[in-house]
């Protein structure tokens, strides 16, 4: 149980284009999902909290107009990187919080974005 | 904000050896998880352990919340244990959010 999927696993795009990444909780409902970014040999940095049916909450320094988040259902959150540039190249990972007495998060396999 | 430091940053072991990884945090936490990130980037949940001790096979973890640290023990290490180990904590008013530690990169050789 508690499986999270991401699609696509890898994407290469040209500078200036937009890229959408999907995050799905496959066997549970998640009112809250999270998006992280990880640069090579570094730790994970939280970008934003995605709340079902309401606006996302962004961490300080993360541009909300550049990283659009939509959480339209209890099993799906999407992250759109708009007008991508080479500096946006990174490993993007989503997680979903399992509802219950604990705040345990389960993570997707990640999406590697390369912007040329 | 809270600081989460892990030690050692790198660890090289021969198969069969035991190891202890440490996670120190600078403030009280309500949530602590240990993860293993495999070479393909997938984060695998090891323990949800805001306090106390848990064991799962060759792995065990202990969190002493009052002293602001957690330990992950790996016994009889195997090459498949290689990867990066992260602790992550939830703190403050919004314990949903996880702040990740600096990580320990483990390499196990046959």
Short summary:
Chain A is mainly beta and 116 residues long.
Give a quick account of the main beta sheet of chain A: strands, pairing sense, barrel closure: 7 strands, mixed
Shape of chain B: globular
Quickly give the structural class of chain B: mainly beta
Which oligomeric form is depicted? Answer: heterodimer
End-to-end separation of chain B in angstroms reads 41 Å
Rg of chain A computed from alpha carbons, rounded to a whole number of angstroms: 13 Å
Mean pLDDT of chain A: 93
Q: Any overview of this molecule?
A:
With 116 residues, chain A is mostly beta strands. Chain A is built from no helices and eleven strands. In chain A, strand 7 (67-73) and strand 8 (76-81) form a beta hairpin. By secondary structure, chain B is mainly β. Chain B contains no helices and eleven strands. In chain B, strands 2, 4, 5, 9, 10 and 11 form a six-stranded mixed sheet that branches. In chain B, strands 1-3-8-7-6 form a five-stranded antiparallel sheet, with no helix packed on it. In chain B, a hairpin with a 5-residue loop joins strand 4 (31-37) and strand 5 (43-48). The mean pLDDT of chain B is 94. At the A-B interface, strand 4, strand 5, strand 9 and strand 10 of A face strand 4, strand 5, strand 9 and strand 10 of B.
Topology, please?
The complex is a heterodimer of chains A (116) and B (110).
Chain A: E1 4-7, E2 10-13, E3 19-25, E4 32-38, E5 44-51, E6 57-58, E7 67-73, E8 76-81, E9 90-97, E10 105-107, E11 111-115
Parallel strand pairs in A: 2-11
Antiparallel strand pairs in A: 1-3, 3-8, 4-5, 4-9, 5-6, 7-8, 9-10, 9-11
Chain B: E1 4-7, E2 10-14, E3 19-25, E4 31-37, E5 43-48, E6 52-56, E7 59-64, E8 69-74, E9 83-90, E10 99-100, E11 104-109
Parallel strand pairs in B: 2-11
Antiparallel strand pairs in B: 1-3, 3-8, 4-5, 4-9, 6-7, 7-8, 9-10, 9-11
């Amino acid at each position: 149980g508690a499986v999270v999927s991401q699609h696509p696993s890898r994407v290469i795009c040209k500078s200036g284009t937009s890229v959408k990444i999907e995050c799905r909780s496959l066997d549970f409902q998640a009112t809250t999902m999270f998006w992280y970014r990880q640069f090579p040999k570094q730790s994970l940095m939280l970008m934003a909290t995605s709340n079902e049916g309401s606006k996302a909450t962004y961490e300080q320094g993360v541009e909300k107009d550049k990283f659009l988040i939509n959480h339209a259902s209890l099993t799906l959150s999407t992250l759109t990187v708009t007008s991508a540039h080479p500096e946006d190249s990174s490993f993007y990972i989503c997680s979903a919080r399992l509802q219950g007495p604990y705040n345990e998060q389960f993570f997707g396999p990640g999406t590697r974005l390369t912007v040329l | 904000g809270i600081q989460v430091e892990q030690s050692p940053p790198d660890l090289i072991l021969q198969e069969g050896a035991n190891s202890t990884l440490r996670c120190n945090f600078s403030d009280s936490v309500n949530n602590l998880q240990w993860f293993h990130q495999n070479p393909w980037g997938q984060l695998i949940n090891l323990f949800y352990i805001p306090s106390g001790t848990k064991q799962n096979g060759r792995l065990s973890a202990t969190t002493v919340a009052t002293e602001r640290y957690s330990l992950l023990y790996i016994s009889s290490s195997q090459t498949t244990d290689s990867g990066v180990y992260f602790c992550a904590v939830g703190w403050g008013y919004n314990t949903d959010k996880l702040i990740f530690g600096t990580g320990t990169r483990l390499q196990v050789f046959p």
